[in-house]
Design goal:
Layout lengths: L2 H17 L5 H23 L22 E13 L7 E18 L22 E8 L1 H9 L8 E5 L6 H14 L5 E6 L9 H10 L1 H12 L7 E6 L1 H15 L3 H4 L2 E6 L5 H11 L6 E5 L4 H9 L14 H10 L1 E5 L17 H9 L1 H4 L5 E6 L4 E3 L3 H7 L2
């Protein structure tokens, strides 16, 4: 018996074990898609069984006297509700007014690139990420602070997290990416009210959609009177849905002055490919080509595809498909396959965290061979990007 045949029998046995009865072929086919979802969701749950940081890990700790302790300044804007009025701790409720803060995040001496040494119930700066300092800000103070965050750079980097993320998880992840990639300028995390639960997928979609106006306002303020420096928007998973909806909203409001200053990167976007096509029909070609990081082996997006009865998720497109290349050139998008980057877990959905590897190629597009829209493959070993199409490769790299 072939491996595929044995695998099919094992899978059928698993389903029959769940259902508690022998099944006909027709019964198997009817139930298999639901079982796939159940099995996949269970696998994703087991992937994240480690302890997750509680809101209390955002309490300021004393880091004095700890050698080799690096720090990152991270600004945060959120549409989440506060747990307590006088603390920078947030839950999954939807706030009427956005909240703003500045954090100094310490990186432990044992830090490994691309990873977050997550704190448990309490942060230990010698071993985990921790908060070395923080300040609550109003909107004006927040805008002034990001405008003067780095005397050596006018760049602004905005991270929009994905599904199943808490406020503190998004904050620590932004600090990790900023540290590992040595990102210059102001680093901002935009945190929308995710339930931070595996079963909260539908509620998360609502929480992301709820936050469109707030993200639009941040982008307007970030680009206002900015004549130098780049404004990067780096979104992951469901955060890409929020980001693209916000871009569409800005286009309908005729805010090309904002759109023309944005450099957008969508990592593993959890968006139906057909829905994205209609979104881009409104947005049109951006002055700075949008970059989309994809991986056909993304298991989390496969689950999303089943849950939403979608034909294809944007983040799992195959850049070797000539239709993808044609669509990319038509709408002015750079698709980059990042499957060669080592995943952080079995879902293959969190490769975005390894921006320490990706950042040089994405920053220096001329050196990497990216000049315009098209379909490309990232070579993690060489940290370069090249076109998978021999015929157009020479044209794109000229």
């Amino acid at each position: 018996m072939t491996g595929a045949g044995a695998g099919a029998l094992l899978w059928r046995a698993m389903i029959e074990n769940i259902c508690g009865t022998d099944m006909t072929t027709r019964d198997f086919r009817l139930l298999s898609s639901k079982a796939v979802i159940l099995y996949a969701m269970t696998a994703l749950a087991l992937t994240g069984c480690g302890s997750r940081p509680s809101p209390e890990t955002l309490a300021t700790v004393d880091t004095r006297g700890i050698p080799k302790l690096a720090t990152e300044q991270v600004f945060a804007m959120t549409t989440r509700g506060r747990i307590k009025p006088d603390e920078n701790m947030f839950d999954n409720s939807k706030a009427i007014d956005a909240s703003y803060a500045a954090f100094t995040v310490s990186i432990p001496p044992n830090h490994k690139s691309s990873e977050v040494e997550w704190p448990g119930a309490k942060a230990d700066p010698k071993k985990t990420f921790a908060i070395a300092g923080q300040k609550r800000l109003d909107q004006k103070e927040f805008i002034d602070a990001i405008d003067h965050a780095d005397p050596n750079s006018r760049d602004i980097g905005i991270f929009v997290h994905g599904y199943n993320n808490s406020y503190q998880e998004a904050l620590f992840r932004m600090a990790q990416m900023g540290h590992d990639a040595n990102i210059p300028g102001a680093k901002i995390v935009f945190s929308w009210p995710s339930q931070a639960e595996l079963a909260g997928y539908v509620a998360d979609k609502e929480g992301a959609t709820y936050s469109r106006d707030y993200l639009a306002q941040l982008l307007i303020e970030a680009t206002k009177q900015r004549k130098t420096g780049e404004v990067y928007v780096f979104a992951h998973s469901m955060g890409c849905w929020l980001t693209v909806e916000t871009l569409r909203q800005l286009k309908l409001a005729k805010r090309d002055d904002v759109l023309d200053k944005l450099k957008v990167v969508l990592a593993s976007p959890d968006i139906d490919a057909d829905v994205f096509r209609t979104q881009m029909q409104v947005i049109g070609k951006m002055k700075l080509p949008m970059t989309i990081l994809v991986a056909p082996d993304d298991r989390a997006l496969e689950v999303s595809k089943l849950l939403s009865a979608s034909s294809q998720r944007l983040g799992a497109l195959d850049v070797h498909n000539p239709q993808v290349l044609a669509a990319a050139e038509r709408v002015g998008i750079q698709f980059i396959d990042i499957s060669s980057v080592k995943p952080l877990d079995s879902t293959n959905h969190n490769r975005f965290a390894d921006v320490a590897v990706l950042a040089p190629a994405l920053r220096d597009e001329k050196k990497a061979g990216i000049k315009d829209a098209g379909a490309f493959v990232f070579n993690a070993a060489a940290a370069t990007v090249s076109s998978p199409f021999r015929i157009v490769s020479g044209v794109l790299s000229q």
